[in-house]
Write a structure and sequence with these properties.
single chain, about 750 residues, alpha/beta, 8-stranded mixed β-sheet, 20 helices, disordered N terminus
Length: about 750
């Protein structure tokens, strides 16, 4: 069914997994497409299909054109031969790239001179006679046009266009979406911002801010464009664009399109990826797996839709995962081959990227359909929110890179958990600089970049093996161990893994479960006989039952289900005050001992244990002690004692999770500014924001996602909001609230409805 294809490396490309192809599809059928077609001909690659959002504007040499994704939302063929977006307009190229769920090809004319030390992103085209010198980085979907000259150590942002005969000297930076005109010249060490226009023949001798137009010699700024978004007040602004936002938008648009009411939205996201968030997008990897089987991941109705999509797209999804993964990914596929072949998905721990691709496709279809119906106006804004304030009944959202605030009637905060706990000081970094690597945030900017950083360090150690310390045994910790062992060039160079956490162990897994083992939570069952209980009663009874399970060598895989079944009736007996205590404290304390992981993750852990290559250490990281040629020496605290670890390590990775909201590490974050401005208040869990029954922290300011932890919602305690099923149900609630609040204030006559 699915075979791993042969791989080759493209000249001048930093992507060593680029596939050798014989056919490419072009999105855009104008004159620009014909220049790309000729470039592809140098590699004996044929153009087998053209797509365009306006097929009538095709070049006379283009034979036939299929409808673009905007005109063919429901059945556009995303999977297939790779695309090149053959559209000259930078903004259109960005919009098309965001809508396509396809592979992209990088084309380089055989007369171009490209240093092997230059890196070129996917979808970029380098035309005839262009020169790209060493240590230059070129982003995605860039046009390097005929005869352009790009000297050493340049950095060209995504979606830029360097026109024919333009010359960029050394150490030049060009921002995202910027167009450098014909024969323009940029002198060394000049930085040009994003979405600028540099006129033909201009000579740029000093830095240019974002959104500026420069002409003349020497170049002068003649105007500044405002960012690409409407100044109209929004109905709703979403801060953060992970799956909480995506689920909410999907369900909100269902209600708006049903009633043909107008809606103005903006989505603000500081990373370059919308709709997926860290777990399900590029900041994770294409091969990391769900922590639970699919049947426990989504509610039944949405699970059915997702399985239909998986079945339809499985060939491309699996091939992509195998190509991008390593030994463990291949083992996962081999072990689950029959289930995949027969579309028995429910009990599989699939790669999380599959979920991200599905959610992105669904929300983008909903958005485009609403735009086509005239219902929706939407701005994507790639910037960081620094603060929010309220006056005259609306919110002003202030951005890091733009002086003009975004205005909105209502705001949804969907930024995930509080920021990660920082463990390393500046002094630690200086100590480790020559002898080891400290990784504070493995997903920033992406896990892939972290893996590359580790590879580079290993290369400096020649044949010497290294030791790795993972701080934290949560989902991120087990994922890091799995990912490092999925890369043979890393796995074979690691001698010992150390895993440091207060629990001193990784989550349990359903490997070789013994059906004869039963667990009965006797203390909880006895508690259920009482007519009145408090939250601490449930905590004490649960801890006693878990203590007994540990004494009997019974792990969480046997205890989670029996305890969950007893919890429901017990929680119903609590009054509202006690339910709040459970939500803010008890639930999380019990959850720390009730953790499980997928069998493929835990098999890696078990194999490393059996080889005596993985050692669990119980305690909290205290700090780095010293650094020398033998590695990094660290200390940890256990039972109120600071202990110096006997073995040195070479790499330390922080997977300890998010810090408390009121931590000093949060003093300059968005959350702290919201608290200072009296828009939000922390709840007693210190991990979540207090909300009312309408999920509001303040009037018109809503919370969705993990920051809802520690609240009562529909009079039920909520202490953990990272499960996709729970996020889906809460998003439905929020979408209904938003629609009700906004639609009651809309007055539209029949003529307006007809126009819409």
């Amino acid at each position: 069914m699915l075979d791993k294809e042969g791989l080759t490396t493209q000249p001048g490309s930093s992507d060593n997994s680029s596939k050798k192809v014989s056919e490419v599809r072009l999105y855009g059928a104008g004159g620009h497409s014909q220049v790309i077609k000729e470039t592809l001909g140098c590699e004996e690659i044929i153009v087998n299909e053209y797509f365009d959002d306006n097929p009538k504007r095709k070049h006379y040499l283009v034979p036939e054109v299929d409808k673009g994704v905007r005109l063919n939302i429901d059945s556009f063929p995303h999977q297939g031969h790779p695309f090149i977006i053959s559209v000259g307009n930078n903004r259109e190229r960005l919009e098309i790239a965001q809508m396509l769920k396809s592979e992209f090809y990088t084309a380089i004319h055989d007369t171009a001179i490209v240093s092997p030390l230059a890196s070129i992103g996917e979808g970029t085209v380098v035309f005839a006679g262009a020169i790209i010198q060493p240590n230059t980085s070129i982003g995605k979907h860039v046009i390097i046009n005929t005869g352009a000259s790009i000297d050493h150590d340049n950095n060209i942002g995504d979606y830029a266009h360097i026109s024919p005969q333009a010359a960029l000297c050394g150490h030049v930076e060009i921002g995202e979406g910027t167009h450098v005109g014909v024969s323009a010249c940029v002198i060394p060490q000049v930085k040009i911002g994003k979405w600028c226009t540099i006129g033909a023949g201009a000579v740029v001798i000093k830095d240019v801010p974002d959104y500026c137009t420069v002409v003349g010699n020497p170049g002068k700024i003649i105007k500044t464009k405002k960012p690409y978004r409407s100044n109209q007040q929004n109905d709703v602004v979403f801060i953060g664009s992970g799956i909480s936002t995506s689920f909410t938008i999907i369900k909100l648009l269902d209600q708006y399109t049903d009633h043909k009411l107008p809606l103005k939205l903006s989505i603000l996201e500081k990373s370059k990826e919308f709709h997926t968030g860290i777990p399900y997008g590029y900041r994770s990897t294409d091969t990391t797996l769900l922590i639970k089987p699919l049947s426990q991941f989504l509610p039944p109705k949405e699970l059915g839709y997702f399985i239909e999509w998986l079945t339809l797209n499985k060939k491309g999804l699996i091939e992509d995962a195998i190509v991008k993964g390593g030994r463990l990914t291949q083992e996962w596929f081999n072990d689950n081959y029959d289930a995949i072949e027969n579309n028995n998905w429910k009990e599989l721990y699939i790669p999380r990227s599959f979920v991200g691709k599905y959610i992105s496709e669904v929300v983008e279809k909903k958005i485009q359909a609403a735009i086509n119906q005239g219902v929706l106006s939407l701005d994507y804004i790639n910037d960081e929110v620094v603060t929010v304030d309220k006056s005259s009944g609306s919110y002003s959202i202030h951005l890091k890179n733009n002086s003009s605030p975004v205005l909105s009637k209502k705001v949804v905060l969907a930024i995930g958990s509080a920021p990660n706990r920082k463990l390393f000081s500046v002094n630690d970094i200086l100590i480790s600089k020559d002898n080891g690597v400290l990784i504070e945030e493995p997903y920033e900017p992406s896990l892939k970049s972290t893996i590359n950083q580790i590879k580079k360090f290993i290369d400096t150690k020649q044949k010497q093996k290294i030791n790795v310390l993972i701080i934290g045994t949560n989902a991120s910790g087990i994922e890091l161990v799995y990912t490092l062992n999925d890369h043979p060039e890393i796995e074979t160079r690691i001698n010992q893994f150390y895993a440091l956490s207060p629990q001193g162990k990784f989550p349990d897994a359903k490997i070789g479960m013994d059906p004869s083992v039963t667990f009965i939570p006797k203390n909880l069952i006895k508690l259920a006989e009482k007519s009145k209980i408090i939250a601490s009663d449930i905590e004490k009874a649960t801890q006693k039952d878990l203590d007994q399970a540990e004494q009997d060598n019974i792990g969480p895989i046997y205890t989670i289900q029996p305890i969950s079944e007893v919890f429901g009736p017990l929680l119903d007996k609590l009054d509202l005050i006690e339910k709040r205590k459970f939500a803010t404290h008890v639930g999380n304390e019990i959850g720390k001992r009730q953790r499980e992981a997928g069998s493929h993750y835990s098999k890696v852990i078990q194999d490393l244990h059996s080889l005596h290559r993985l050692h669990n250490v119980s305690g909290k990281f205290s700090g780095l002690l010293s650094s020398n040629a033998n590695g990094l020496q660290f200390a940890y605290e256990s039972k109120n004692q600071v202990i110096e670890h006997k073995e040195s390590v070479d790499i330390i990775i922080n997977c300890s999770g998010s810090c408390d909201i009121k931590s000093s590490q949060n003093e300059n974050t968005l959350i702290s500014s919201l608290i200072r401005n009296n828009i939000c208040k922390t709840n007693p869990s210190n991990r979540g924001i207090t909300v009312n029954e309408s999920l509001e922290a303040s009037d018109g300011f809503y919370i969705i996602g993990p920051l809802l932890g520690g609240n009562l919602i529909d009079q039920k305690p909520v202490w953990h909001v990272e499960h996709a099923g729970r996020i889906s149900s809460l998003s439905q609630k929020l979408a209904t609230i938003l629609y009700k609040e906004l639609s009651t204030n809309i007055e539209i006559d029949q003529e307006d409805l007809i126009k819409a």
